[in-house]
Specification:
217 residues, mainly alpha, 69% helix, Arc Repressor Mutant, subunit A, 12 helices, single chain
Length: 217
């Protein structure tokens, strides 16, 4: 029991170090050596818990989903029957403080998953899957008259949409200068406002869930 607790504490310490470094720089600027230096452990000791930098980032990603899941669960527990505007606002607010999650979502997840072991990837998928389950439950509770296919259409529009929130709301000075020089408009809206607007549109005009195209040869 004690060894398990020590393992959990050290895993948390490694992920905490990754989060601090990522917040200050970026994925490509962070190495496993950098993460080890931010902990009380040696680099070989870190390998006892994570084999690659990508596995550490995937653990951070899962933790961010878990934190969002806690906010989604609180929304699900609320009483009442909010209208579309109130529900859109409440769902957008669950992402308040989840800048790391939105930033990770904008990254190339395929590469992160490719360099992670199956057990690490499975843990991440559980956290991600819980987010989907909670959003489905929120819709089922607060929109009981919504057809099942409309709820599924909401889910499969909302989650892919989240991948683009950070790039459209976190414009760097370099990007701003380049777009200004190129004569390209750029948004000044924040992530929460963008999510709120999109959710409200989805609730008002649900679209069919995309289906796999079948072809014949």
């Amino acid at each position: 029991m004690r060894s398990k607790r020590i393992g959990e504490d050290r895993t948390r310490e490694i992920v905490d170090a990754c989060e601090r470094l990522y917040a200050a720089t970026g994925f490509h600027a962070v190495s496993l050596r950098d993460i080890a230096r931010e902990t009380s452990m040696s680099r070989p000791s870190v390998y006892n818990y994570f084999w690659t930098k990508e596995e550490i980032f995937l653990a951070l990603f899962a933790r961010e989903y878990d934190r969002w899941n806690a906010a989604l669960a609180r929304l699900l527990a609320r009483p009442g029957a909010p209208d579309d505007a109130a529900l859109a606002d409440a769902l957008a607010r669950t992402l308040r403080g989840r800048g790391i999650l939105l930033r990770l979502l904008s990254m190339n997840l395929y590469d992160m998953e490719a360099w992670s072991r199956v057990e690490n990837l499975t843990a991440f998928k559980r956290s991600y899957g819980e987010s989907i389950r909670l959003v489905r439950s929120i819709l089922a509770k607060f929109r009981p008259g919504m057809k099942p296919e409309a709820r599924e259409a909401f889910v499969w529009a909302f989650f892919p949409f989240l991948f683009g929130v950070h790039p459209y709301t976190a414009v760097t000075p370099k990007q701003r200068a380049a777009m200004t020089a190129a004569g390209v408009d750029f948004p000044t809206v924040g992530a929460e406002a963008l999510v709120r607007s999109f959710v409200r549109a989805l609730l008002s005009h649900p679209t069919p869930r995309p289906t796999e195209r079948k072809t014949t040869r």
